[in-house]
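Running this now, will post back.
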Amino acid sequence: MDPLLLRLFQMQVRSQAIFFLYAWDDLERFLATEPPDFQAHAWQCIETMLNTSANIAKAFWGTGGKRTQQRQPLRDSIGVPDLSAFKVLLVRNHFEHFDERLDEWWEKSKTHNYVDMNINLSVEGFDAIDVLRSFRTAAGEVQMWGDTLNLRAIHEEILGFWDALEAAVITRPFP
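Update: finished.
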């Protein structure tokens, strides 16, 4: 990969990682203080983390993994593990294509009961298709239509490569 292109990708990953970390911090604050309408604020943070982690995944592997080999130097430059939490796509895809998921839910749900924008409440007794959005803070997991994404694992992975990313973008001279 050309050094300039590599640097630009590193800069974009850094920006998206910063947005993710800001949203993580905001989510923790909203959950701790429960201000008015904290549920909407919390879900705004969760959706920001989903969007930014999707953007980072696209930088690492390309859309649909189509540029896995070409982006290897980027992943290597900051130490992204092969078994990266960023590879889990289903929940992010559910959010991106929520309109299609709602049509599918309408066709397939037996009861048309649903759970949406749930935070820390049990979803036991609901069919997986009826859980539109649920978040478990202790685990850091978002659940949607039976699929789960661990935002805590993504947060930890960002923190794990942060120093290498900062060194690549901030301390090294621009190519």
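DSSP finds six helices and four strands in the chain. More later if anyone needs it.
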